[in-house]
Amino acid sequence: MRRTDRTIGLAWLGGLGLALHAVPAAAQYASGPNATVEVASDERRRGLSWSDGDPVLRGSVSVPVAQGLSLDGAATSLWGSDRHGGADAVIDLGPSYVHQLGGWRLSLDARYHLFPGADHQGYGEFGAGAGFLIGPASIDIGAQYAPRQSAIGGDNLYLSSAAAFAIPGTPLTASARVGHSSGSDRDPLASQRLRPGGDYWDYGAAIAWYRGRWSAELRYSDTDIDSRDARHAGSALIGKFGLTL
Asked: In whole angstroms, what is the distance from residue 7 CA to residue 21 CA?
């Protein structure tokens, strides 16, 4: 791993460690940690399959440490992902902050993505979002930015918008989203990892079912990536089933 990437990774993990020391002092704000276990037919992010189209297992935990602030972690099986250098899993770590301002829900987050089983693949990114609730409907916009890192061949900016509607009298929620990925190509080969074929759009729709601690989702995902660059980036129907502990 290059020195700059090692420094970035240590900084993110060090910051997470310092924040974990704050948990006891901030316990008065915490409603308690929550965890989720999921199985899915594919791990697809921003229209790209991270698991080469294979089913995955995913576990996540969120620990509140102060009003609106939580520390989050997730681990997802990748089974030797070609997209991520043969990684067996991805581990996502970082803090999230949410603030309610009138009818707006504002959020900030940071994530470092670790890839066990692969070398020189870790990278970090920052995000911000805003959402507005109108009765049973919500509208959200967001941005995620990964600064220039050798693991992704430059920098990467992802802009997205989404809408969701809880169907009255049912445990169902319908949603739709669209996003756009762009960035620099300092290393054209490495940049293909997150942007095969260059800048692109992704879009999709989903129907989700919630009942107590259980949830299920059926989601359609697609991109406008040219077919010659679209390995594991074309249209897909993804099923997911989860349990909140």
From this structure: 21
